[in-house]
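Data card: per-record layout.
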Amino acid sequence: MIGILVITHENLGQHLISCATHVMGEKLPQLNHLGVFIQDQPEAIFSKARVMIDELDSGEGVLLLSDIFGATPCNIATRLVRSGKVECIAGASLPMLVRVLCYRHEPLPVVIEKALSGGQQGMVHIQSAS
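The structure for this 130-residue chain is written out next.
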């Protein structure tokens, strides 16, 4: 099973996981979050994330989800990427996370593809019926 670490600003990752748990209807293993707050030192967060990745990895890899490309959480996650072992996707959303959770028993490249499609398909312009 692919481990998932959500690295976001403040408590966004915690809230995404809470909502995903509600949608999925069960406690989800090998899933954790790491919030980055204004007072945090990036190197300390980086070190903590490395430990968390080791805890989440059962040998099949870890997918990192971050909120905003180019922001501190994503920059930290980018430094953690190890091709084929630890991968990262920016732009985390609830549809993306739920899709990842549904396919996390697949190989990491498949989970990445499902995450991207879940994020894209989760964006829908809803127009007025009248």
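Known properties of this structure: The beta strands are 3-9, 31-36, 62-66, 86-90. The longest helix spans residues 42-56.

See the next section for split statistics.
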